[in-house]
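User: quick one - fold this with 5'-O-[(L-methionyl)-sulphamoyl]adenosine bound?
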Amino acid sequence: MNSQSNNPSKHKPKFFLTTPLYYVNAEPHIGSAYTNIAADAICRFQRLAGSEVCMLTGVDEHGGKIEKTATDRGITPQAHCDEITEKFVELWEKFNIKYDKFSRTSSEKHNKVVEHFFERVKAKGDIYQAEYKGLYCLACEDFKNERELLGGGLCPVHHTKVQEYSETNYFFALSKYSDKLIQFFKDHPDFIQPKYRLHEIQTWIDEGLKDFPISRRSVNWGVGIPKSLEETGALQTIYVWFDALLGYITPLIKDTDKNNTEITKEIFDKLPEFWPPSIHVIGKDILRFHAVYWIAMLMSAELPLPKKLFGHGFLTKDGEKMGKTRGNIIVPAELLDKFGLDAVRFYFLFNIPFGSDGDYSEQIFIETVNAYLANRLGNLFSRVLKLCFNNFDGKIPENIILDSGSAIAKQSIELPSKVKAHMDNFEIHLAIGVIFDLIDKLNLNLTEIKPWTLYKDENPASTEASHRAATECLLETLESLRIIANLLEPFIPNMSEKMLSVFGLKNTQCWAELNHWNYLYKNFNEHLKGQTLQDPGILFSRIQ
Ligand code: MSP
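Assistant: Sure. Structure tokens for the protein plus 5'-O-[(L-methionyl)-sulphamoyl]adenosine:
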């Protein structure tokens, strides 16, 4: 009993999630924090539900954009990357993001992985030299067509001027994979999530895929093309996206020797444990790179393909796009310092259906977290505990076995599988929603039964039955709250931890025993003999 979760087991299903590797041209913004909060919630849930999870996040450090930022700052690109990467690591710590692997594309191992992959694809006959003449947006690190630009030659995403350049580069034969890609999306209609984003990709493929350059002469900060291809005096670095996408593989490769991990053909012939990803979680703006470039690259290298891609929406502030010039940027660490971890995680996970665009407004933020975390959940918990301490000294009575057929028992017992069904579909806000349906029901039940009044019944003919009914109501609520506390861990880990501590649990319970009814009775009376419920203090302080 009370087996604290996550005993390593050989037969656990594997779940591998990646977040985007964030550009380090600037410090992390709320968009990056949003993705990682959602990714962390998904991974925590899968761990709770019994999977062996690997969550990978990291940084994308190469390319012209970062080279320029470092030059403008008068420092080396590596020094700049080290500094900004540290900020990402600190922020993930603050947000309590439990990642397993951190990918840095400037690492030596990654450089070797990219070089090796380039050679593998070249050996397949999918890389050739040609002249590129076209347009490029440095902010997107992407090639542009004349017809997609705004007036004045501006990039439609960043509203900055695109550059024209012409160079002899190495190209990747993307067009060769058109038919294979079309077939792949036909065979895997659920590959892109939410499903409505598939249309954008299909249209793009239908318009005709063009081979694209995967090396640059004018960019120095990147992985050099393999030595065997270098012409004297004509150094080229590998295109930043061709490099960065491989950052999803690098940290999985075990280090044979700290500084000198050999990247061999065998490693790629049989990629390490966890490959391929169960899901790449990304923003909708970079879906194309993942759904088309990346899949074609993997097809070319004959490597197993990821199982799913999830393109989430964009955040706005008070209905407006966030931007430095507008001065309406949300700084994630400041938000956290002001409102605390659980409030911030809860708002973004619950208030914005995962996949849709969403807005941040301070007023709605405060209203939401006060209504849900302080009123519905916090008050319920402290009210019930107070009654338990006042009426049975916080000890779980030895003479009451709860009926597992009551409406509340049934809803509580079914809750884990309902939450799981939503989380398996990445419907994070719906998963939280069904948990709060039960919380609402518990509140309603208390108001109807009024245990505080029943305890005051002094009529000798009914007092025993009244007290018993009151205690049953409290125990039933506690039993449900134990299940709820476990299920809330992926979303609001701090509150969940406090709630679990009430029941003497230091960690989430194992999935199989989560919905055991009368768990508290058994645990406190048979295992923790005599121990009382613990007072957690204030669960969540109302934001004024
Ligand atoms: N470096 C590439 C990803 C390479 S993955 C191999 C990149 N980096 S990024 O830093 O520009 O963006 C990282 C993620 O942040 C993207 O998924 C992007 O969608 C997301 N967001 C950027 N601004 C955002 C919002 N305003 N709202 C939500 N997410 C946003 O692209």
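One thing worth noting: The pocket of 5'-O-[(L-methionyl)-sulphamoyl]adenosine is lined by residues 20-23, 31-32, 34-35, 60, 244-245, 247, 282-283, 285-286, 314-315, 322 (CB under 6 Å).
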